[in-house]
Amino acid sequence: MHDMVEAVRQDAAAFKQTFEAIRSEVGKMIVGQEGVIDGVLTALMAGGHVLLEGVPGLGKTMLVSSISRAVDLPFSRIQFTPDMMPADIIGTSMLTEAEGGGHVLSFQEGPIVSNLVLADEINRATPKTQSALLEVMQERQVTVGRRTIRMPEPFCVMATQNPVDQEGTYPLPEAQLDRFLFKLIVGYPSEAEYHAIIDRTTSGERVELRPVTDAATLNRLRAVVREVPVPEIAKAYAIRLVMATQPGSDYATAAINRNVALGASPRGIQGLMLAAKVQALLDGRYAVATDDLAAVAMAVLRHRVVTNFHAQAANITADDLIAELLASVRT
User: Fold this and answer.
1) Does the model's pTM come out above 0.85?
2) Which DSSP string do the residues of 233-285 spell out, in sequence order?
3) Which CATH superfamily is domain 1-227 in?
4) What angle do CA 205, 209, 211 make, to 5 degrees?
5) Residue-range domain boundaries for the chain
6) Residue 299's closest CA among 282, 265, 324, 276?
7) Tens digits of per-residue pLDDT, 170-195?
8) Which of 165, 169, 279, 329 has the fewest beta carbons under 10 Å from its own?
9) Per-residue DSSP letters for 103-131?
10) Residue 103: is its pLDDT beyond 80?
11) CA-to-CA distance for 161 and 159, rounded, in angstroms?
């Protein structure tokens, strides 16, 4: 029994140490954005995908490439455009010349076959191309003809999108947004951070990031995350939170019933639990608390709560409604 407790303590300590090492290394390149960095790393450790929303130039692409160097994983970047086709992402069969003459049909893998995939400006692509990517995210494999290619583990898609009211964008449908564990909002830097950005990016100094972990370690730590126990009180709180986003449920408030068209699905509660387990480990605990669930609720639920016309006319956002739920739902 003592040996088992000691092993659990060592696993939890290793998790926290690795997470903080990656965070520290990425922080050498990225100025500020601590909440976004923690969110992306939490999604990576929990085995989920993350959607980053913000205007161009805020460092979203640099963040993902910095993480790939810090964790020493193959990194692939896909720049989405309106003329992109699904084959540009998943790959295609090509006729190539064989040795000794003749031709052979071979499959050329697309950029999706990688550990870390940056889907840049995903809402610039048409729905047909978006759905090809999001299918891979869910199934973690690509099927072309009779050939099936499984994605390497760990596999994580980090997608960026411009705010949806910008010209030339195709908003992601709700069912496809649901594939993302987190939706994180990348904001503008503070005044002090602008000074650091100038010093770090316009001087002669070069920042070189070194690997602080590897794929095998990440896969092992993902297993540690899933082993974190969830007490009944935390489980009940998570269920109430998710049900409270669903209009007409026992826990929905008047504001939810009035302003929400669709609430979170069971995938929302799975996301809450996995992200809360990471939160608990970072806090040095090996059990999920209700505070862990509250801490990750905004990032997990904001893209799963679809507001109706009444809310949009009154300028009420999903974030506003979730903040109200967190204040009203009790354990």
Assistant:
1) yes
2) HHHHHHHHHHHHTSTTSTT--HHHHHHEEE---HHHHHHHHHHHHHHHHHTT-
3) P-loop containing nucleotide triphosphate hydrolases (3.40.50.300)
4) 165
5) 1-227, 229-331
6) 276
7) 888 787 888 899 999 887 877 887 87
8) 165
9) EEEEEEE-TTSSSEEEEETGGGS-HHHHH
10) no
11) 7
